[in-house]
Each structure stands twice: as structure tokens, then as C-alpha cells.
């Protein structure tokens, strides 16, 4: 990088920081409301029709499903947003603003228009046109470069279904546990059948699956099943990391995403079943608050193991 390019980059970074500060994004609330910046952006995207579902918001705001669930829960509780079932697909919930939400959006828009209008009022028309072109070009450049900014050793976490996720999660479990404790066909078929059934329920808001792709194929996964156990208890399932990603910290990141989702959904507890001797996984579980609740010997998979159940008490907002 030559000196001129370095100078340009530093000037852009400095100007970007000033924009963030001057527009109020460092504050706890934004645009004269009592809402966080992410909640204000959510209202705007819903009002302007770009986000009609929680998944839309997750994509637009670049937030994980758990974070979107948390902010939508607050907006619904305050009476600004309402969820309604899609008339053509009962599994989909559509987002719209209430009358109160529309009034709040109008106030946000007025506040923003006033702030920007005051700022550009002294500028000439030529400078304003240059400013608009520059900001739009910079935003587009950031969007284009987003997929290229992830370091090779820090693969991204994706949420939801994608082709091959079911088969690869089954394959990783079969490969790992056959080598570790000799589990065979009964174990693999149970993982396959239960995961396939779970995937048909993935649109339920209390269910989620997260995965990581490395080298073009699924290499790690974790899931939260909010319907498998009684009451408001979540079931953490299918947590597996391929050998190619072990030691990279991806397991910790996946577990953190799943736990954040559980807390955002308000589950009273999260349970998981595992086996004695998986000390690395146990350390991860205990780090986020899981405690060993019971253990029993069993041979249901063709090899004798000590089955363990861990429980974590939910952290409600």
C-alpha cells in the first residue's frame, strides 16, 4: 500500500467515525426516541417495506436471529410492531407497524430530515450532489467487499437450512462417534431420522440451527429445539465440529449463538445430553452456565457409555 492510499484510508476512517458520533449512534438511544439504534433501524426497514419478516431484518441489519428476536420482542411489547400469520403460509409471521409505530416512525423521519437538512443547508447544489454520490458509492463498496473481509481461519456462522446441511450433520456425527466409542447403524439412523423431523419444524420461532461452511461444505453445526421437551425448556442438539475446524474457536462461537437465542426466546432452562469423557465439550458447556444434572450407564447405541444430562438456567431480559 502506497502512502497516498494509506492517507485516503485514514481520512475515510476518520470521517466515518465522525459520522457515527454526529448521527448519535454512540448513544444509548437514537433520533429523539427511547429506542436503541438497532431498534430504530428495524422500525425504518419495516415501515418502508424492505423487512416483512424477522429473517428479512436479520439479513438487512446483519444481526443474528437471536438479536432480532430480542429487539422485535421489545417493539411488540411497546406496541410499535405487530406480528400476523401470513395468509398463504401459516409458518411465516409478517411484521407491520401499529398506529403507534407509524407515529413513532414519522417522528424518527422528521428528526432525521431536520438534522440532515440543517447540515447541508449551507452547501452548494454541486457539493450536495458530490456528497450523495460519494456516500452511495462508499456504501455500495462496503457491501461488495463484505464477503471478502472474513479471515480464512474465521469462517462465518450461517443460520437456517441450506442444501447438504442435513446430510453433513449426520455424516459428521456418524464419523466422530464411530471412531470415538464405536457407535454404528442404530446411532446414525436415529440422528438422521430425528434431524430430518426437526428440519420440518425449523420455521417455528423457538427452533433454530446454525452451521459453518469451510472449503465449500458444512463443517460444524448446533441446533436449539424449543418444541422437543415439555414446557418452556429448550433442547440443545447436534453440536458437532469437524476435525478441520477443531481448535479454531468455532465451537465457542456456535454455542454462544445458540445460548443467546435461548435467552432471547425466554426459555426457563436449556438441556443437553452427551457422554462422559468429552472434556473439551464439557468445558464449553460449563463456561456458559451448564451444570451436570444426572448421569447413567447405557448401551442403547451398541457400546457402553455413561450418558450425561446438563442443564442451564435461562437468563431472561
Structure commentary:
The protein is α+β, with helices and mostly antiparallel strands. It has 2 domains: 3-148, Orthogonal Bundle (Arc Repressor Mutant, subunit A), CATH 1.10.10.10; 157-313, Aminopeptidase. The protein contains 10 helices and 9 strands. It has a 7-stranded mixed beta sheet with strand order 3-4-5-6-7-9-8, with helices on both faces. The protein has a two-stranded antiparallel sheet with strand order 1-2. Helix 3 crosses helix 4. The radius of gyration is 24 Å and the shape is elongated. The relative contact order is 0.08. The mean pLDDT is 85.
Summarize the structure.
The strands form 2 sheets. The protein has a 7-stranded mixed beta sheet, sandwiched between helices. A two-stranded antiparallel sheet has the order 1-2. The chain has 317 residues and is of the alpha+beta class.
The chain-level mean pLDDT equals: 85
What percent of residues adopt helix (DSSP H or I)? 40-55%
Q: What is the CATH superfamily of the largest domain?
A: Gcn5-related N-acetyltransferase (GNAT)
What characterizes the major β-sheet?
A: 7 strands, mixed
| Class based on secondary structure composition and strand pairing | alpha+beta
CATH topology of the largest domain: Aminopeptidase
Placed side by side, the strands forming the largest sheet appear as 3-4-5-6-7-9-8
Number of H/I helices:
10
CATH class descriptor of the largest domain:
Alpha Beta
State the shape.
elongated
End-to-end distance: 46 Å
Amino acid at each position: 500500500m502506497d502512502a497516498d492510499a494509506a492517507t485516503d484510508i485514514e481520512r475515510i476512517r476518520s470521517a466515518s467515525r465522525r459520522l457515527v458520533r454526529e448521527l448519535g449512534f454512540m448513544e444509548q438511544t437514537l433520533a429523539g426516541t427511547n429506542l436503541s439504534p438497532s431498534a430504530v433501524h428495524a422500525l425504518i426497514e419495516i415501515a418502508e417495506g424492505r423487512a416483512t419478516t424477522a429473517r428479512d431484518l436479520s439479513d438487512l441489519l446483519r444481526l443474528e436471529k437471536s438479536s432480532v428476536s430480542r429487539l422485535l420482542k421489545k417493539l411488540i411489547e411497546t406496541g410499535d410492531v405487530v406480528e400476523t400469520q401470513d395468509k398463504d403460509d401459516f409458518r411465516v409471521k409478517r411484521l407491520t407497524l401499529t398506529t403507534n409505530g407509524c407515529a413513532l416512525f414519522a417522528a424518527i423521519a422528521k428528526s432525521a430530515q431536520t438534522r440532515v437538512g440543517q447540515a447541508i443547508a449551507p452547501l452548494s447544489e454541486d457539493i450536495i450532489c458530490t456528497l450523495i454520490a460519494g456516500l452511495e458509492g462508499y456504501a455500495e463498496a462496503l457491501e461488495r467487499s463484505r464477503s471478502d473481509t472474513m479471515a480464512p481461519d474465521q469462517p462465518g456462522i450461517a443460520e437456517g437450512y441450506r442444501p447438504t446441511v442435513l446430510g453433513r450433520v449426520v455424516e459428521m456425527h456418524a464419523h466422530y462417534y464411530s471412531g470415538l466409542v464405536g457407535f454404528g447403524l442404530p446411532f446414525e439412523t436415529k440422528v438422521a431420522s430425528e434431524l430430518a423431523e426437526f428440519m420440518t419444524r425449523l420455521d417455528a420461532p423457538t427452533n433454530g440451527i446454525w452451521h459453518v461452511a469451510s472449503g465449500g461444505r458444512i463443517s460444524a453445526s448446533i441446533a436449539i429445539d424449543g418444541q422437543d421437551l415439555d414446557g418452556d425448556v429448550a433442547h440443545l442438539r447436534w453440536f458437532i465440529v469437524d476435525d478441520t475446524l477443531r481448535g479454531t474457536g468455532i465451537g465457542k462461537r456456535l454455542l454462544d449463538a445458540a445460548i443467546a437465542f435461548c435467552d432471547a426466546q425466554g426459555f426457563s432452562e436449556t438441556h443437553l445430553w452427551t457422554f462422559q469423557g468429552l472434556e473439551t465439550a464439557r468445558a464449553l458447556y460449563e463456561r456458559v452456565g451448564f451444570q451436570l444434572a444426572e448421569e447413567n450407564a447405557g448401551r442403547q447405541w451398541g457400546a457402553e457409555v455413561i450418558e450425561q444430562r446438563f442443564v442451564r438456567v435461562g437468563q431472561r431480559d
